[in-house]
């Protein structure tokens, strides 16, 4: 590969890196642990990567940890165009897939072709949630907001008047990646907030 092609490749990589800086501006619904502000997509993805690094021993199946870390780092990049869809927003979730597919096509194609394909395929693997790695990545993605909601006294749950049935519907596949982590979250993050009335029992 000549210097010109090398430069073109690097320019595309830098263009992508600059593009995803926008994740720092996309607010999620979960608050950071002191409750002072909402976390952003970049913080959320970093948090999941740290969880994957430290808690992979609890995965139900043997997993490629680097693949999980890579997956959680890129899983919300599509929200640069599609925006963050709140877990309990039924109308938003109805159009989520269509919006995110269009976003994936645009954003990942900023990269050189080989890396574009790799990240697009990795994102699709996460979305499909069939492989051991993608199941574990979903477990992390589902439990991290529970942890932050519990840490803030259920601040986002209260704002949205979240019901137990909504949470359980959202969490129905969480145990497929890690039964141990789901059991811990259920006992230590959900039950006490249910008992205190933070989560509405229905």
Helix content: 55-70%
What is the CATH homologous superfamily assignment? Hypothetical protein af1432
Supply the number of structural domains: 1
Uncertain ranges = none
Give helix and strand order, one letter per element, not per position. Answer: HEEHHHHHHHHH
**How far from one another are the termini?**
62 Å
Main attributes?
single chain; about 200 residues; mainly alpha; Hypothetical protein af1432; two-stranded antiparallel ribbon; 2 strands; about 65% helix
Question: How is the secondary structure organized here?
Answer:
Layout: H1 3-19, E1 27-31, E2 38-40, H2 41-55, H3 65-74, H4 79-82, H5 90-108, H6 113-128, H7 132-151, H8 155-160, H9 164-170, H10 179-195
Antiparallel strand pairs: 1-2
Helix pairs in contact: 2-3, 2-7, 3-6, 3-7, 6-7, 7-10
Question: Can you tell me about this structure?
Answer:
- The structure is a single chain.
- With 202 residues, this protein is mainly alpha-helical.
- It has one domain (3-195): Hypothetical protein af1432 (Orthogonal Bundle).
- The chain has ten helices and two strands, in the order H-E-E-H-H-H-H-H-H-H-H-H.
- It has helices spanning 3-19, 41-55, 65-74, 79-82, 90-108, 113-128, 132-151, 155-160, 164-170, 179-195; strands at residues 27-31, 38-40.
- A two-stranded antiparallel ribbon has the order 1-2.
- Strand 1 (27-31) and strand 2 form a beta hairpin.
- The chain starts with a helix and ends in a 7-residue tail after the last helix.
- The model has no long low-confidence stretch (mean pLDDT 94).
């Amino acid at each position: 590969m000549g210097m010109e092609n090398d430069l073109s490749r690097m320019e595309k990589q830098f263009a992508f890196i600059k593009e995803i800086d926008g994740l720092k501006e996309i607010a999620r619904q979960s608050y950071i642990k002191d409750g002072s502000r909402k976390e952003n997509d970049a913080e959320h993805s970093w948090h999941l990567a740290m969880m994957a690094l430290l808690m992979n021993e609890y995965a139900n199946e043997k997993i490629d940890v680097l693949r999980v870390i890579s997956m959680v780092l890129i899983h919300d990049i599509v929200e640069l165009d599609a925006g963050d869809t709140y877990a309990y927003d039924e109308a938003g979730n109805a159009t989520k897939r269509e919006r995110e597919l269009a976003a994936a096509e645009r954003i990942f194609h900023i990269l050189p072709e080989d890396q574009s394909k790799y990240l697009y395929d990795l994102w699709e693997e996460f979305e499909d949630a069939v492989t051991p790695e993608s199941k574990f990545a979903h477990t992390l993605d589902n439990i991290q907001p529970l942890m932050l909601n519990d840490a803030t006294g259920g601040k986002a749950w209260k704002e949205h008047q979240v019901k137990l049935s909504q949470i359980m519907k959202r969490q129905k596949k969480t145990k497929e990646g890690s039964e141990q982590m789901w059991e811990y979250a259920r006992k230590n993050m959900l039950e006490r907030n249910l008992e205190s009335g933070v989560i509405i029992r229905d």
